[in-house]
Amino acid sequence: MKTRFISTILIFILTFTVKAQQIDFSGIWSGKLSLPNTIKLTIVFNLQKDSTDKYSATLDSPDQGAKGIPTENVTIKEDSILIKVPAIAGSFEGKIFTDSMKIDGKWKQGGMNLDLVLYKVDKVEEVKRPQEPKEPFPYKVEDVKFENTTDNITLAGTLTMPKEGKNFPAVIMITGSGPQNRNEELLGHKPFLVIADYLTRNGFAVLRYDDRGIAKSTGNYSTAIRRILLQMPYLQLSI
Asked: Does pLDDT of 206 surpass 80?
């Protein structure tokens, strides 16, 4: 009886292994990662299989505008999968449910160990930002540059102003902590673009610019923090 029981288990394992080898896991695997700050990020693994049946993958984070992040390797063994992503010091390990084409696993990164369930899908839903203004704009939009002669750097930004009139009240938008571009872009959101659009539509001239060393501004952001804290630069605009 014991021998028959062991034989049954072995047959089951062999059957599952053969079945798993026959299934092609190539394609799009997508799921939602819940972060501690209640933000949910869409995580996408794009799996591909070569002629030797070896898998490779890239990682996308559509909510953050990140695509094609390379992975180190993809290991599929029996009902488990392991994907290492050294570029962002992360990894995903999970159990494969072939009947529902689901992977129930964990995303590990920066000391975090978060639940992540992936499903095989035909395509990833496009991220929609209905609040983001779209061209054509009913106001003037101009790319500008201005010099910081003290540190010999050039800051680049966007100046928007109403099409009609002159002597507009002006707003200069300065980003918060961390290196950011003129739109203060974060996780695919562009709050400075939205605010500048609203203000300009209501009669304001608005200047927003890239932090030094970011996007089209020159300089080194890491060496600018102390100076910014101690001395706010003075900028005069002639409109």
From this structure: yes
